[in-house]
C-alpha cells in the first residue's frame, strides 16, 4: 500500500505540473446571436440517471428541465405505484416510512448522519 501511495503521489504531482494556471478557465463559444436550439445531457450519477434538458430561443433560455435520480428511484405520479411507494403503504409511523424510502434513494451526502 505504501508503494501505491508513492506512485499515486508522483502521478498527482505530474498532473498538477501539467496545469497552466495562466490559461483562461472559460472560453466563450463561437455562437452567433441570437441562437436557437435544444440540448440534452445525460449522465449516470452516483444515485442513478441524471438528465438536464435546455431549450434556447433567440439567445434566451426558454425552458430548462432537470430529471433527478430521485424521480427514477422513488417513482412517478402514475396510477401504478413504484416499489418504493408500495413499501410505505400501511406503515405505522413516519420514521418507518422515512427509513423505507431511504433504502430506495440513498443520498450520498445524507448517509453521513
Keywords:
single chain, 113 residues, alpha+beta, three-stranded antiparallel sheet, 4 helices, 3 strands, flat
Topology record:
Blueprint lengths: L1 H16 L19 E9 L2 E10 L2 E8 L1 H6 L8 H6 L5 H11 L9
Antiparallel strand pairs: 1-2, 2-3
Provide an overview of this structure.
- This protein has 113 residues and is an alpha+beta fold.
- The protein has a domain of 37 residues.
- It is built from 4 helices and 3 strands.
- A 3-stranded antiparallel beta sheet has the order 1-2-3.
- The longest helix is centred in the N-terminal third of the chain and has 16 residues.
- The radius of gyration is 22 Å and the shape is flat.
Can you describe this structure in just a few lines?
With 113 residues, this protein is α+β, with helices and mostly antiparallel strands. It contains 4 helices and 3 strands, in the order αβββααα.
Total number of helical segments?
A: 4
Structural class: alpha+beta
Q: How large a portion of the residues is in β-strands, by DSSP E?
A: 15-25%
Q: Major sheet: order of its strands?
A: 1-2-3
State the distance separating the first and last CA atoms. 30 Å
Amino acid at each position: 500500500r505504501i508503494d501505491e501511495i508513492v506512485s499515486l503521489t508522483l502521478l498527482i504531482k505530474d498532473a498538477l505540473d501539467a496545469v497552466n494556471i495562466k490559461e483562461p478557465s472559460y472560453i466563450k463559444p463561437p455562437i452567433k446571436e441570437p441562437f436557437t436550439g435544444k440540448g440534452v445531457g445525460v449522465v449516470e450519477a452516483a444515485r442513478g440517471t441524471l438528465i438536464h434538458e435546455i431549450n434556447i430561443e433567440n439567445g434566451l433560455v426558454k425552458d430548462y428541465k432537470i430529471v433527478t435520480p430521485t424521480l427514477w428511484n422513488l417513482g412517478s405520479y402514475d396510477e401504478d405505484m413504484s416499489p418504493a411507494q408500495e413499501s410505505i403503504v400501511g406503515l405505522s409511523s413516519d420514521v418507518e416510512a422515512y427509513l423505507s424510502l431511504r433504502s430506495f434513494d440513498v443520498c450520498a451526502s445524507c448517509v453521513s448522519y
